[in-house]
Design brief:
The protein is an alpha/beta fold. About 40% of the residues lie in helices and about 15% in strands. Pfam families: Asp_Glu_race.
Length: about 250
């Protein structure tokens, strides 16, 4: 089984960290291929960057020439998952939805701890669209930018831990979701500080993607995510959708 996992920004070190985290939970025989978009911002922290990332991720996937069995979009609250589902005939898993759905198996309510406050509405909207807000206790911001997770890791861990504690103590969350692909591998530190289960979206997405492939399931194509209709696409960087669907 080969799973493509797409970083939504152009920071190569973050792509490597996402891939390393994914491999830690991948089953024997599952190959994880981490990919970085060819264009876009070095971090995604707003709507403009998110929409740009959506195009870049779709572009990267449709230009990938080897067979693959599933795709993971490794951006928290980012746009684009629906477009990938139209373009591909393999399962597409978004880490935002993967983390939240997994959290609901582990406790009554969950909270998301993310980066900047401006990203909170994007995450809330993604969870609402996915029907995952009924048991959402809160979405909290650590106040740090995505790139600070790498440049100042000690400060990042301290801020994430503090917001996680407040989510548990004040918002009554029983599970914490780490709300950024760049937070991969922080689970142990946050768990020790809070005493609750910690869900990393990258790892949750890998296990969900593997399960869908093993069950032979993929996106329904009868209506919402039917392939794009053949038409002329002018000036778009992607290979035209009329070139055909990427496939196993």
């Amino acid at each position: 089984m080969r799973i493509l996992i797409l970083n939504v920004n152009t920071t190569q070190s973050m792509t490597r960290a996402i891939g390393d985290s994914a491999r830690q939970v991948a089953s024997p025989g599952t190959e994880i291929v981490e990919l970085t978009p060819d264009f876009g911002a070095d971090s995604c922290e707003g709507n403009f960057e998110s929409y740009l990332a959506a195009i870049a991720v779709m572009d990267k996937v449709v230009r990938y020439t080897e067979p693959f069995d599933a795709v993971i979009q490794a951006g928290y609250g980012e746009h684009g998952r629906e477009g990938l589902q139209e373009l591909l005939d393999v399962p597409v898993v978004d880490i935002t939805e993967a983390a939240a759905s997994t959290a609901q198996f582990l406790g009554h309510k969950y909270s998301v701890v993310t980066t900047l406050d401006r990203t909170v509405p994007l995450i809330e909207d993604r969870l609402k669209l996915a029907g995952l807000t009924d048991r959402l206790a809160s979405v909290r911001a650590s106040g740090l930018g995505v790139l600070e997770l790498e440049s100042d890791p000690q400060r990042a861990v301290a801020a994430i831990v503090e917001q996680s504690r407040q989510a548990v103590e004040q918002d009554k969350a029983e599970v914490i979701c780490l709300g950024c692909g760049g937070m991969a591998e922080l689970e142990d530190q946050v768990r020790l500080a809070t005493g609750v289960p910690i869900v990393d979206g990258v790892r949750a997405a890998v296990t969900i993607a593997e399960s869908l492939v093993r069950m032979g399931l993929s996106t329904s194509k009868v209506r919402t995510y039917a392939p794009p209709r053949p038409k002329t696409v002018t000036g778009f960087p992607m290979v035209p959708a009329t070139a055909g669907l990427a496939s196993r």
